[in-house]
Amino acid sequence: MAAATVAALIAAVLPASAGQDSARQAPAQQDSAQQCAAGDLTVRIAEGHSPLPDRYRSFMVMFNGRKGVDCRLSGGLANVRFYDANNQRMNVPFLNYAYLTPPYESVHVSETGTAYVYIKAPKGGTIDFPVARMSFDVPTSPRSEMSTTWPSSVNGPLEFGKIMSGVS
Length: 168
Hints:
single chain, 168 residues, mainly beta, 4-stranded antiparallel β-sheet, 2 helices, disordered N terminus
């Protein structure tokens, strides 16, 4: 049998993840973890590297588990609110709410396992919102509110992604 035919047969029989490192095989382990509760999680927001830095800024909401926590998180943030340094609510506009529409990825969360929500913000613009804090509901069991500091002022409208694994 030709080498190409053997390779095709092996590819057809083995799962796509065969031969990849254990970090890429984590989804099989995620199914056994319980859904996260809000008290299981820590959250922080940082500005990341935008793939189009001349047009957009990129922010990341990052969820980790507290010590000893092993759970899963999926869905999208809801009831998102922004506040300035004086704790006054700000009406930062959103482009769409597609992040609330299934399907969702179930992401393993632990002290070292991180779930992400990526946020795209236009660079420049006429309205600069001096955001200091963001609050939101997390799809935990039960659904709960979380709040964390926001790293810098931002222009809108913002575009939110769903809860997902990290991208490089």
